[in-house]
């Protein structure tokens, strides 16, 4: 089928260009910010009867931005190179467009492709690298999503590579063909073959470990603790806690996989209300969570929600923290159970309060993530020690840095698999399997919810989910404290 996309992408040098923006509302503000982000010195004149408060601040800040508070007039086109129409009045937009075209001036009309001579695409900026994305005016939202994707996957240090290639290009003594051949050879590593191979290896590793541990868990449990007669007996007399944990596991994993937190603290507070031994609580949670997080992590990798560099910085220290936290809980839980119960209840209640803060927090601008290794260790330690906290600590910190929600959730979920695996092995080797029906309920509920949660990543209303989880955690924690007293 013949392509109907006849756009020819170009990159303008805006040092000598003069833009006229007609309209000073939200759209006018957005277009002004877009132009200034690419060139803070670009000359802009804005004509409008109303100016957004943020736009007024920009006008005061930049000497190269001029504001004229009145209705548009034909004389406003004098000396202008490009016109951007940003009003909500169709008749005004058409009139401005016809006047501009009669004078040979190119026009962009926000959300009106038929009136446009050019589009302002979504732009990816990484040092000297600039990528403009357009959907031919059909879906600006998709263009923004593609910009977010490329901004995330292109490394921040790409500028170093560009400078090195520029030096090589400048110093190369060969002819044009030799220079081109060498540059092609050097940059060939950018193709996706190695990336795809790495993705397949990681996916296979996660799946193999999950299956292996599941077989080991079932086999060891059957051979050491549960005989054939016991299985028949338990099948006839399954405790009500199994069905409760089935629902808890499903809901906790649905929220955890979709918004990146809540699984451990929801399960931990529920199990503390049942009076389960503390090390067994965290051990059961991590044994169960290992399966669901493996499926969740695999699903997120399949949907392309994982930042590999951040994953390694979280997973390796997180594993070390999980082992440390598990060993400490085993020691304290056996000797000082009542005190530890109180401490963990206070901790889970503080996590509930933190979830409320996260729910009402405004989205921050993207910032560099420093000390990701320390963040991973801290999250792993408290997650193993308290039965939960990896998401509220790690995910909330990354979201506070302005990182994209789906990538944060996907990366944290995949790293969580290895953290829970380390904690589960530590508890498993020290305690064996206890309360198998609770573990089984959490496994089945969480495993059913994991693929659905991955599809919902970034789509589930985060504020509602967080407030609901926070409410449950705080109420459960208070009940535990009252019960102890």
Short description:
It contains 18 helices and seven strands.
Characterization of this structure:
This protein is α/β, with parallel strands linked by helices and 485 residues long. 66% of the residues lie in helices and 7% in strands. It has 18 helices and 7 strands. It has helices at 26-38, 53-61, 90-102, 140-153, 158-171, 176-187, 193-224, 228-236, 240-259, 263-273, 278-302, 308-335, 337-360, 372-386, 390-400, 405-431, 436-456, 462-484, and strands at residues 18-22, 43-48, 65-69, 82-85, 106-109, 122-126, 129-133. A 5-stranded parallel β-sheet has the order 3-2-1-4-5, with helices on both faces. It has a two-stranded antiparallel sheet with strand order 6-7. Helix 10 runs parallel beside helix 18, helix 11 (278-302) packs parallel to helix 17 (436-456) and helix 12 runs parallel beside helix 16. The longest helix has 32 residues, at 193-224. The relative contact order is 0.10. Mean pLDDT is 75; it is low at 192-196.
